[in-house]
């Protein structure tokens, strides 16, 4: 669905943010885009949805250039930025003004999502709290039923019960026809939701891999099992020592996204990436699936 090829981009010609970057995102997946603050997650999302313009290379949505913002692309694309500010309209008025841009929009789904997220109706939305505004736009984004849904830090501003409901309704909305991309720095919020993790670091996509594949490639050990000489990365948690180790037998191991992220963005990354990508001999901008 989304194909980024040899993309160069930056806000200053002297300081490029991305160089020769490649990334493929397909329908039927929920991607978690992870990266440190300033790594370029939001900028990458803006390139994907056509709100930023590459210096070189291309970003395509279903083989159409994202930056062209063609109507047939936009009607199947919804981008929810981190900060939202709703107008002085009721939910019903907002739907009347906006839903027509999305041919697959379902008012029935919208009001069901709003009920689950406990968003009040009948009042002007600009008077909502920040969390309520965020929940309304999450519900609207899902009800638009676009093939590509891009969410930038959607759980910021949500309380714990709302985060639980967010994960529930997002998982229920995924289909083989939809591609969802979620950028976050709150790794724990996505652990039970995403099926593919994408990590951007040092101007590169250092990982783009399905969680189930990682669970068979790596062992995420705790306690005594973490104290091993073959560990790629070690850390500490409330459960005691933790580590990422090889998994030559392929036995399923629950992926610890926070531990994985720390390993991929720290000094232990080269050895871990060499293990994950044994045929790679030169630096790459997109990991092999």
Large-scale geometry: globular
Task: Report strand %.
Answer: 25-35%
Q: What's the CATH architecture name of the largest domain?
A: 3-Layer(aba) Sandwich
Number of DSSP E strands: 13
Radius of gyration: 20 Å
Going across the major beta sheet, what is the strand order? 6-7-8-3-9-10
The biggest sheet amounts to: 6 strands, mixed
Mean pLDDT: 91
Structural class based on helices, strands and sheet pairing? alpha/beta
Share of residues in helices: 25-40%
CATH topology of the largest domain: Rossmann fold
Number of domains: 2
What's the assembly state of these chains? single chain
Count of DSSP H/I helices:
9
Q: What low-confidence regions span 5 or more consecutive residues with pLDDT below 50?
A: 281-289
Name of the CATH first level of the largest domain: Alpha Beta
**What separation lies between the terminal Cα atoms?**
16 Å
The fourth-level CATH homologous superfamily of the largest domain is: P-loop containing nucleotide triphosphate hydrolases
Order of helices and strands: EEEHEEHEHHHEHEEEHEEEHH
Written overview of the protein:
The chain is α/β, with parallel strands linked by helices and 289 residues long. It has two domains: 2-201, P-loop containing nucleotide triphosphate hydrolases (Rossmann fold); 208-276, no CATH class. Helices cover 28% and strands 26% of the residues. It has nine helices and 13 strands. The protein has helices at 41-49, 71-74, 91-98, 107-116, 130-143, 160-173, 211-217, 257-264, 269-276, and strands spanning 2-9, 18-25, 29-34, 56-61, 64-65, 77-80, 148-152, 179-184, 196-201, 204-210, 218-222, 233-237, 240-246. Strands 6-7-8-3-9-10 form a six-stranded mixed β-sheet, with helices on both faces. Helix 4 runs antiparallel to helix 5.
């Amino acid at each position: 669905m989304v194909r980024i090829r040899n993309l160069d981009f930056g806000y200053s010609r002297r300081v490029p943010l991305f160089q020769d970057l490649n990334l493929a995102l397909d329908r039927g997946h929920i991607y978690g885009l992870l990266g440190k603050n300033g790594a370029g997650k939001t900028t990458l999302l803006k390139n994907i949805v056509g709100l930023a313009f590459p210096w070189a290379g291309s970003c395509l949505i279903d083989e159409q250039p994202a930056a062209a913002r063609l109507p047939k692309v936009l009607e199947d694309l919804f981008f929810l930025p981190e900060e939202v500010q709703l107008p002085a309209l009721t939910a019903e008025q907002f739907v009347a003004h906006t839903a027509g841009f999305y041919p697959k929009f379902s008012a029935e789904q919208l009001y069901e999502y709003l009920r689950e997220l406990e968003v009040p109706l009948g009042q002007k939305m600009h008077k909502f709290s920040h969390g309520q505004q965020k929940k309304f736009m999450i519900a609207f984004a899902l009800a638009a039923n676009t093939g590509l849904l891009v969410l930038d830090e959607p759980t910021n501003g949500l309380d714990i019960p709302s985060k639980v409901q967010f994960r529930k309704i997002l998982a229920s909305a995924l289909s083989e026809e939809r591609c969802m991309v979620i950028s976050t720095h709150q790794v724990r919020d996505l652990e039970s939701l995403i099926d593919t993790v994408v990590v951007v670091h040092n101007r590169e996509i250092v990982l783009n891999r399905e969680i189930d594949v990682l669970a068979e490639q790596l062992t995420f050990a705790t306690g005594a099992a973490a104290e091993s000489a073959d560990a790629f990365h070690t850390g500490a948690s409330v459960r005691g020592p933790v580590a990422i180790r090889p998994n030559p037998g392929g036995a399923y191991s629950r992926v610890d996204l926070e531990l994985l992220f720390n390993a991929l963005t720290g000094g232990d990354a080269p050895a871990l990436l060499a293990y994950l990508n044994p045929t790679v001999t030169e630096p790459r901008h997109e990991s092999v699936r």
